[in-house]
Structures are given as structure tokens and as C-alpha cells.
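Hi everyone, sorry if this is the wrong subforum. Our group has a chain we'd like a structural model of before ordering constructs, and none of us has done structure prediction before. Sequence below.
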Amino acid sequence: MLGALTLALPVWVQAQAPIVIKFSHVVAPDTPKGKGAQRFKELVEQRSAGKVKVEVYPNSQLYKDKEELEALQLGAVQMLAPSLAKFGPLGVKDFEVFDLPFIFKDTAAFRAVTEGPVGADLFKKLEPKGIQGLAYWDNGATHMSANKPLRGVADFKGLKMRIQSSKVLDAQMRGLGAIPQVMAFSELYQALQSGVVDGTESTPSNYYTQRIFEVQKHITLSGHGHLGYAVIVNKKFWDGLPADVRGMLEVAMRESSTFANAIAQTENAVALDKIKASGKTTIYALTDAEANQWKKALMPVHKEMESRVGKATIAAVYKAAGFVAPK
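Answer:
Right subforum, don't worry. Here is the predicted structure as C-alpha cells:
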């Protein structure tokens, strides 16, 4: 009877050595991305009866921002969830469309892009680089912070603002009169604490879990950007998996993505409340007039980046997201 049961199991379950997936990311475990990665691990290990092992490495334990994509391409790790800004240096500049300021009016607009044909087409552009796109994860609107109030555009003049490696974000900060500084996320807290940079942009969950609010006196709820991640896997590794393993992983990824995206809004709201309760940071919401001033200052970035990101890509995102330029 036991022998018959063994024969009924898929070949990959019978194999003795487990298939190992190293899943590396740069944020804390108690963020939407961190929790999504953990949910994926739990689902996979449960459904494979431990024959597929997912090792999650948060907080840049294995690789920093700049190193992780190369590590994935080399096969040193199998899975990542980098922010969408990270693909420009690989030569897939279309992804920098997600960095265009004020392009997404809300979460629904962002999801309309990532969960539709535009998101699927963008993933196809990664395949020649040896990367397979699996899912888009959402972490909500990004806001600006500094050790001085940021209300009008003039308040940015001369400030050193940390950004991810993105030419669009570089142009965004310059459009506000700030000096962009590319820096690994893992180095940000110390850089803010020591004054190497004056401010940054991020989501409330990242401000809170990385304790950035402790070294920033002011956060402006600008909602100028939207932070999304691409869950990606080494294509050679993925294509080499047995079909039934891949199918199981795809289902687990879909369920993990639904979970991660569902908690993002709540996690950010809770984090913002905790930051307010700490009394260490003043939270300011832009008035409509102030927000419009920011938008008008930053709209030239959209035009400026057409030659880099691609006019057709920008147009496709405008249409899917229902973007309307400020008057």
C-alpha cells in the first residue's frame, strides 16, 4: 500500500533533496513585501510537504539594491522582489514609467496597469535578460520627508534627497530644485542620521519599519509616487523546474500576491498612525493648491522622459491608469 502511495506522488515530491528557492529582498519582514514573501514560503512548503524549501532573506541580508539583480541573473539567488525602479540599469527602461510623478491618482489606477496587458507586456521585456516576471506587489503611495517642512516647491531648493537608481526620480528631484542622491535602502537611516542626505521619499510602512521617522522631523503626505515591486525569478531556474512544481508555485504566488496587495493599504495606515503617535515627526497634508503647484512643477518630467522610457509605454500607462494632466 505504501509503495502504491509513493508511486502516486509526483516525481519531484519523491526526490530526496529539496528544491531550494532563495528569496532575497531589502525591506523589513513586517512590511507588506516582507509578509508577502513569508506567506509564499509557508504556502509552498506546506503544499510541497517540505520538498520545496523557500529561504527568505529580508533587510539586505544577502544583497543590497545594486547587487541583487546581478545575483539573480547569475543564479546566486532564485527570487527577488525589487521595486519597479530597479530595471532601468539593466536596460529595460520602460519600467521607469512607474516613477513618473503623479501618474497614478490612486491604488486602483496603479493596479489597472500592473494587472492588465501593460503589466504583462512589461514582464516580457525582462525575459531576454534571463528574468521571468511572476507578479506585481503594491506598497501604496510615496510621500516626501525632510528635517524641514516641505509644502511649496521652493522648500526643496538645495536639499540632498535620497532616491533609488532611476533617471526619472533624478529628474523629479531636480524638477523640485533638490539634489538627488542615489543610495542603497539599507544605508538610508544612517545617512539621514548623519546628515549625508537631508530627506527622502517612501511609504509610511517603510518610514516606520526602518525607523526613518526617528531621523526625519517632517513628512509631507504628497502622494506624488507609487511604490510597486516586481516578484521575479531566474528564468533558467524557472524553466528547468518540473511542470507540476511550477504550477504549484504559480498558484502559491497568486495567493501570496492577493494577500500582500490586500494588506498594503492597512499596513500603511497603521504605520502612519504609529508615526503620529511617536511625536517625533510632524505629518503635513498638502492643500489642493499646494498639490497642484507640485504637479505643475513636475509635469515637464513626463515629457523629458519620453525618449528614455518610451512614448508608447507612457501613452499606454496614461490610458490604463486614466491619467489626466493638471490644468
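For your construct planning: The chain has 14 helices and nine strands. The first strand starts at residue 19 and ends at 24.
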